[in-house]
Each structure stands twice: as structure tokens, then as C-alpha cells.
Amino acid sequence: MVVRRAIKIITNPEGEEALSFIKKHHQKKPEKTVLHIVGDCMVEYDGRATSFLDWGQRMILLKQDGNVLVHQPVMREPINWQPAGSKTKFYTEEELFVVSTRHMNPSEKMKIRFRTILLIYIAQLRDTSVLRIVGMETDVVDQIVSDPSCIEEGLRIQKREKQVKSGMIDLFGYDKKHVPVIIEVKRSVASISSVHQLRMYVNDIRRDSDHAEVRGILCAPRIPDMVKHLLVDYGLEWQEIERKILLHDDDQRSLKEYF
Questions:
Q1: I need a labelling partner for 190 at 20 to 30 A (CA). Which of 11, 25, 175, 235 fits?
Q2: pLDDT tens-digit profile of 120-158?
Q3: Domain containing 94 — which CATH number?
Q4: What is the domain extent for residue 85?
Q5: Which CATH number is 209's domain given?
Q6: Cα separation of 82 and 110, whole Å?
Q7: One domain for residues 175 and 205
Q8: Terminal CA-to-CA distance of the chain, rounded, Å?
Q9: Peptide bond preceding 78 in cis form (omega within 30 of 0)
Q10: 40 vs 71, 101, 252, CA distance in Å?
């Protein structure tokens, strides 16, 4: 067994040894430790459906919120799982080590029997960070809203996500001559379908307004020549605009603060 502060590891334990290890380091405060078991197991599930998974070497992960995940050596998603709030018991049965989990609402239970255990890993983990995603279309839209001059001088954005008959316009505004402007935003390479989408939006606005002239601008980091030619044919415009990808981490400490 290896013990390093908040990390406890045991390899190749027998059933009773595994039970004693988990009771000592995890079971008293399961909401504060993550438990990882690797071994040869059989899984039975009963709840939303009924399933049986025969013997195989798998990874069992019990998280601090009660989630229980059964992973095979391949694939991203767990082959079996129990949701947050599940209660887990550990015991031995006919020389097998058993992990039994139960979730009350909806009612479902899962029983995992181990005939051999290769590894048990227990750790106290702390993570309060929030996932922040950049590089989406909304980032480009936000960029244009905050600085319309990146498209052209005098542009005024009046509304984002304006509903029309054929869909949802990303940005709607007016240029310096008060001509309506429809802006369709793409986060990567613009395509032919983007042109047709923009054309339909422009036609919708023309039908529903008194303005004889309506401009349509396709914005993307890259617009191929073939797409540009089609835009010209339809009397539409384009603007290649680079995304400003920036992640702000207000909680990040400097090395000086860390040490």
C-alpha cells in the first residue's frame, strides 16, 4: 500500500483486504474522496431497464457526488453507470468483493462483483473551477457587438438573434446611411450553405420592410474564393474577421503567490 498525503493506493488486494482499505480511507467520508477500482468484474443493473455484463477487466469510478461509472478499456462513455446521489455499499460475498449502488428516484440499482482486483486508488480532490468555452460563434458575435467598426465604420447593431420567416438572424443593424444590414456569423470556414442562408434572411427582411435596399454581410475567419464569387452573384458582401480567443482566469495565481 502507498500513502502520500491525500492519496492512498493498494495493489492486488484480496476481498477482505480491499474491504478494510475502503472502509478506512473512503467509506467514512465518501463525499470527500474519489474511489477508483480496477479489476475483473461482473455487472448487474436493474432500473430503467435490466442489463447484465459478464466478466471483464474494467475501471470503476466513484465520484464525490455519488456518481458511479463503469468503464471498459475502450470507448469514451461508461458501459454502466449510476447518477449523482447514489448510495454505495461494499462487502464480500462468496469470496467475491462486491460494490452495490442504489439510486432512489428514479429507483435503480447496480451490483458489481469482483473476482480479482488489480488496483484501488483513493484520493481527496478539490476542484471549484468552472469550464469556460471560447471559439464559438457567440464569441464572434460578441466581438462584433462590442466593436461594430470591425465590420465597417458607422455600423450600428440594433438587435441580435432577430427572428425571421426562414430562421434566426445573428445580427441586425443599420449602416451609416441607415440601410438595414443583416450579418450572418460563422466560427470557422464559410460554406456555400452559409450564402444561401444569408440570402434567405435578406429576402425575408426585404418583404417585411419598406426598405428597397437591404445589405447582407457574411462574416467568418476564412471565406473561400468560391463562396466570395457566389456572394457577389447574389449581391451580398463578406468580411473575414479573426476571432479573438481569450480566456480570463480571475482565480489564477502567479508563481510568487503560489509559493
A1: 175
A2: 999 999 888 876 655 556 778 888 998 999 999 999 999
A3: 2.70.180.20
A4: 2-123
A5: 3.40.1350.10
A6: 7
A7: yes
A8: 30
A9: no
A10: 12, 18, 41
